[in-house]
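[recover] target loaded
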């Protein structure tokens, strides 16, 4: 690949050669000298008093070098995993629910870490873990968030007697009350955002070591950014200076939000490595991943939309119970609070928004970020309300959307939740989506489905996201002696194709061959200021930091080229990788210039001493990718089986660096959204035991379940960054969940079934809805209020 590629080129991913030939370097591939192996003892009780943890028998087994409990770690001064505020968002602190590396006096969910065994081999660690005797006095458990807030529900934390650790309100209640009182029509819905597990291909793995001479820790870990991980460990938990913690991340096999921040296992093996004076490795199994990695979603939503006589939106109101799991740690509360609220106006002229959100603890695995992270919840609320409102008042759903969508003349637009949409062309996106989906050809397809005994439904959903708002990201660019150019970033690829797309930005800006560019990430000791990869921010923030840094290089280069070529700096032009003296044949390439100024011989003090540069991009507000999803389904009323027959997306992601990679991101996001809506669901029984603890019980979608989405882009550059990018990582999920929910509702309505069913829309639920209409079964589906 010697060509110079720039932006907007569908270049194949450079890193895939390494992956498909088995040369990726994932954390579990790494072994260090003298490492020992860790295995965790986990609670089998959802709620109970931890009476004792007896380790004598385990310690006596061959190969065992250490067995540690929560009291051991706590007495060493290591703190719990904290709530970690996000800069720039004012929010009350939640009730303190300290999550220790190992349970201290109580367990609060099945799978909670109780002890860690370290041995010479993994097999020995596993055998010894089975000999740890754990005495837990069983306590009543509660796993349902609606039941958890009832007066007599089991209590998890004394400071939250109603199991609500935080209540957050936004909006002017009196104005919203008045809008609803004056409304010609009000649509009300109760929605469930079902609990899911992210399930990346690579389970979490960590390798910890400690140097007693320098009191320095080292941690190799599968993460979404080593600096964000570093902050989580050092500030509160280990209470260590960042220069005493060296974190490395290599290749990462998927994350989707679950690898943003440290887990109890990371803290426990760091402690074990310090005490034992040996590196300690832990690799989670798939069962452990499903049981104890952060779960996601899990909310009960009561929402309403008020409309006037002309079907103009007056106000949206939502009351939301958001699950936190057993512990309210790190950023769990802020995701639904900030992201759902930002999404409630969507891209409509909705003058008023009111929301009340309660963060509820239950005896279940803690909740964490997952693709969408509350943005999908905002879109689900609004787009389900819009479709139901259209059905109730007898108006075409497209006509209702056209009546209320923001026109181009309204941009820039400040929403009632305080965000400012800097760019957008929402009506054109809708028109393109209708054409791409062949909206007008639906009736013919529905007739064909009917002849085959099936019922066809269609659903449409706008989406808009507020992403990339965490304020800073940096880049270092260095020129090597061998002609390579190293780009050092704090973001971390987990499969997004950063090595390719970031290289395209550098190649475009500096005019150098793509194969000379090296993207470097994952070393906390050699990295610019930054955060990591999440919230669809990587290309927005790190890409813009690269652009800023390239501009610095070009400015330095003009000064240095003028010196080398012995011409005036005002005469130097830069284009396609060359500095040239205007009107002459004098010129020098950027890499040749870098080598020339690095050669022996002192440059004048007033000149830069090299082309190596560091830059940083700061952002004041969010970016707003948006688009429209249209889903068509076929339902078999005899079996309840749903087939996704057609899927179309038109998306405005701003300027696109690599259309092929972006299309892949979009396809993957759609599959994850449809997976949640149709298949995936974490289910606990009434005693808090996880019923869906393996892929035998937790239904994962397959490629054969979905058609390949038809996707096209409508690029409206963002004005908020120098590349015009808006972000794409979560958009497929955010738009697909409400699109298929609307398609299900449409199919039921066309069949005369006036019953609401909740996600996931399983064949059993659909079958019961059809047969309930016939009086053949009892109602086990929840009807809408």
């Amino acid at each position: 690949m010697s060509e110079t590629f720039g932006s907007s080129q569908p270049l194949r991913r450079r890193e895939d050669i390494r992956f498909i030939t088995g040369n990726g370097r994932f954390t579990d591939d790494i072994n260090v000298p003298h490492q020992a192996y860790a295995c965790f003892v986990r609670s089998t009780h959802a709620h109970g008093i931890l009476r004792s943890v007896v380790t004598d028998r385990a310690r006596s087994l061959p190969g065992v070098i250490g067995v540690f409990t929560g009291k051991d770690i706590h007495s060493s001064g290591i703190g719990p995993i904290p709530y970690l505020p996000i800069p720039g968002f004012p929010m009350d602190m939640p009730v303190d629910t300290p999550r220790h590396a190992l349970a201290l006096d109580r367990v609060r969910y099945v799978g909670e870490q109780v002890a860690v065994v370290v041995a010479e081999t993994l097999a020995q660690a596993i055998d010894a873990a089975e000999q740890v005797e754990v005495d837990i006095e069983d306590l009543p458990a509660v796993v349902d968030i609606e039941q958890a807030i009832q007066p007599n529900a089991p209590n998890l934390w004394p400071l939250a007697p109603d199991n609500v650790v935080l209540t957050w309100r936004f909006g002017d209640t009196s104005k919203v009350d008045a809008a609803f009182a004056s409304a010609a029509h009000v649509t009300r819905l109760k929605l469930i955002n079902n609990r899911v597990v992210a399930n990346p291909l690579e389970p979490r793995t960590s390798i910890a070591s400690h140097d007693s001479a320098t009191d320095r820790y080292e941690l190799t870990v599968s993460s979404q950014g080593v600096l964000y991980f570093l902050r989580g460990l050092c500030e509160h938990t280990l209470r260590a200076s960042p220069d005493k913690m060296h974190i490395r991340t290599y290749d990462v096999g998927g994350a989707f939000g679950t690898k943003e921040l440290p887990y109890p296992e990371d803290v426990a093996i760091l402690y074990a490595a310090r005490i034992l004076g040996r590196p300690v490795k832990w690799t989670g199994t798939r069962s452990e991943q499903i049981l104890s990695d952060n779960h996601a979603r899990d909310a009960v939503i009561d929402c309403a939309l008020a409309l006037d006589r002309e079907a103009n939106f007056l106000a949206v109101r939502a009351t939301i119970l958001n699950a936190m799991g057993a512990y309210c740690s790190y950023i769990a509360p802020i995701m639904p609070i900030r992201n759902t609220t930002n999404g409630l106006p969507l891209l409509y002229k909705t003058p008023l928004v009111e929301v009340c959100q309660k963060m509820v603890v239950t005896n279940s695995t803690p909740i964490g970020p997952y693709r969408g992270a509350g943005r999908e919840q905002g879109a689900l609320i609004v787009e389900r309300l819009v479709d139901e409102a259209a059905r109730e008042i007898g108006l075409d759903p497209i006509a209702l959307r056209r009546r209320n969508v923001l026109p181009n003349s309204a941009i820039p637009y400040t929403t009632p939740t305080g965000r400012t949409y800097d760019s957008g062309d929402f009506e054109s996106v809708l028109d393109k989506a209708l054409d791409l989906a062949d909206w007008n050809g639906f009736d013919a397809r529905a007739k064909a489905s009917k002849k085959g005994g099936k019922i066809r439904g269609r659903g449409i959903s706008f989406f808009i996201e507020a992403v990339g708002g965490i304020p800073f990201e940096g880049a270092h660019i260095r020129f090597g002696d061998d002609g390579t150019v190293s780009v050092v970033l704090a973001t971390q690829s987990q499969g997004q194709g950063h090595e390719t797309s970031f290289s395209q930005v550098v190649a475009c800006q500096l005019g150098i061959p793509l194969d000379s560019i090296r993207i470097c990430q994952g070393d906390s000791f050699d990295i610019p200021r930054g955060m990591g990869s999440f919230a669809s921010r990587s290309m927005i923030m790190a890409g813009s930091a690269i652009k800023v840094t390239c501009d610095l290089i070009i400015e330095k280069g003009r000064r240095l080229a003028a010196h080398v070529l012995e011409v005036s700096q005002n005469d130097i032009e830069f284009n396609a990788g060359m500095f040239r003296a205007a009107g002459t044949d004098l010129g020098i390439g950027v890499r040749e210039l870098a080598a020339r100024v690095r050669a022996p011989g002192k440059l004048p003090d007033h000149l830069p001493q090299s082309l190596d540069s560091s830059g940083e991009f700061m952002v004041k507000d969010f970016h707003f990718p948006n688009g429209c999803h249209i889903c068509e389904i076929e339902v078999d009323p005899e079996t309840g089986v749903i087939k996704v027959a057609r899927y179309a997306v038109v998306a405005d992601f701003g300027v696109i660096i690599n259309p092929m990679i972006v299309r892949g991101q979009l396809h993957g996001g759609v599959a994850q959204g449809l997976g949640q809506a149709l298949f995936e669901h974490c289910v606990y029984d009434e005693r808090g035991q996880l019923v869906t603890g393996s892929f035998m019980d937790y239904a994962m979608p397959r490629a054969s379940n979905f058609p390949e989405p038809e996707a096209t882009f409508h690029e409206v550059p963002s004005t908020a960054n120098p590349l015009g990018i808006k972000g794409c990582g979560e958009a497929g999920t955010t738009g697909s969940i409400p699109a298929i929910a609307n398609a299900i509702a449409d199919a039921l309505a066309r069949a005369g079934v006036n019953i609401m069913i909740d996600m996931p829309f399983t064949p059993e639920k659909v079958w019961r809805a059809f047969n309930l209409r016939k009086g053949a079964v009892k109602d086990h589906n929840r009807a809408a209020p």
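[recover] notes: The first strand starts at residue 36 and ends at 42.
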